[in-house]
Amino acid sequence: MERTERLFNLVLALTSTAQPIPRETLRSIIDGYAQSSSDSAFERMFERDKDELRSLGVPIETVTTAEGEVLGYVIPRDDYRLPPVRFTGAQWSLLGVAARAWSEATNAEPARNALRKLEAAGDVDDSYTGGPGEVLSWQVRPEEGEQWLPVLWGAIRQRRPVFFAYRGLRDDEPRQRSLEPWSVIGQRGGWYVIGFDRDRQAPRAFRLSRISGAVEAAPNDGDYTIPDHDPTDMIEGSDTGDVVDDVWVAVAVGAGERLRMAAQDVDHASDRSTFDVPEGFDVVYLGGREITSLCADIAALGEQAVVLHPPNVADIVRMRLERVAEAHRIGNDARQHQVAR
Q: Among residues 135, 206, 275, 288, which one has the fewest Cβ atoms lying within 10 Å of its Cβ?
């Protein structure tokens, strides 16, 4: 079974009673322990799990007799229970945005279920009158590649190499890569995995949105070590994405919250006089953004955004929209063919 599930079951067992649970009892009731090949294998597995949970802040206590004999283990409920949580209106809005952000990712249903449970609990600050279901109407687009985060997190924890096809900025076609992952970080408006590239025999950073196909982890735990490293420095020194400065976009009034939040300026008078801005649109100025992520944000707005400058950004956005239109056309043709049959 997955180690994460075993750790979760261990926490459930140790919080289910105020009495200490002996090791042998834990071995018999928790899947994974019961299937251990020997007493020594179980001891190693249990000690690793106990150390990991404690490193995560889980207060596992070892209960002993006056003579020092170990009676068992327990997690005091009062020490592990979270205090009551009440959300303000702004916090409810952000929770709604977060749930929407995962709407197309692997965690979509858990995110929606969590929000529904919070709404049912009704823990809303009295100063908020709109109701927990009322969230801000923000434009939220999941970053391409986010669906691989659980796979990568699991691979890092279990020291498993991962394999994927990756299209670099200078690559005409995706190339297969083999990586010993060290960490995952959000930077430059996207997600990156940092690790040791076995093909280049050097540390590398890879942007998840440039991965083609699936990310696959090795079937067995690895034995590599994760060195001390600074993911931010590694990304800044890598060729994972071009950063573009001085971009002006016309955005429809009331739309494009994601772009507006990242903007250095909105609707400066000189900008409006410089460009031919459509009626009912604001001018949004952005700088220092990773071009792939920026173009995806602009394209997600469809007719509600027009790139005013520079031309290369306008061309990339146009190509993205043309690919989307072509995909819809192919899908409609296939459905009409099925109906005709």
A: 288
Q: Is a pLDDT exceeding 50 seen at residue 132?
A: no
Distances (CA, A) of 205 to 28, 153, 277, 280: 43, 15, 39, 41
CA geometry: angle at 196 spanning 194 and 202, to 5°?
115
Whether residue 248 sits in one domain with residue 320: yes
C-alpha 206, offset from chain centre: 15
Residue 206 host element (H or E): strand 202-207
Domain count, the chain: 4
Please report whether residue 155 resides in a domain: yes
| Residue positions counted in the chain | 341
Q: What is the pLDDT of residues 25-36, one digit of tens each?
A: 998 888 888 888
Q: Exposed (0-12), middle (13-18) or buried (19+): which is 237, by Cβ within 10 Å?
A: exposed
Q: With contact defined as beta carbons under 8 Å apart, do 247 and 305 qualify?
A: no
Q: What is the full DSSP assignment across 51-108?
A: HHHHHTT---EEEE-TT--EEEEE--HHHHPPPP--B-HHHHHHHHHHHHHTTTSTTH
- With H, G, I as helix, E, B as strand and everything else as coil, classify residue 25: helix
Residue 330 lies in a domain: no
* Residue 341 is assigned to a structural domain of this protein: no
Q: Are residues 44 and 67 in the same domain?
A: yes
Residues 271, 291: Cα–Cα separation, whole Å: 21
Residue 338 counted as domain residue: no
Task: Please give the average per-residue pLDDT across 292-309, as a whole number.
Answer: 88
Q: What is the pTM assigned to this prediction?
A: 0.40
* Mode of pairing for the β-strands spanning 190-197 and 175-187: antiparallel
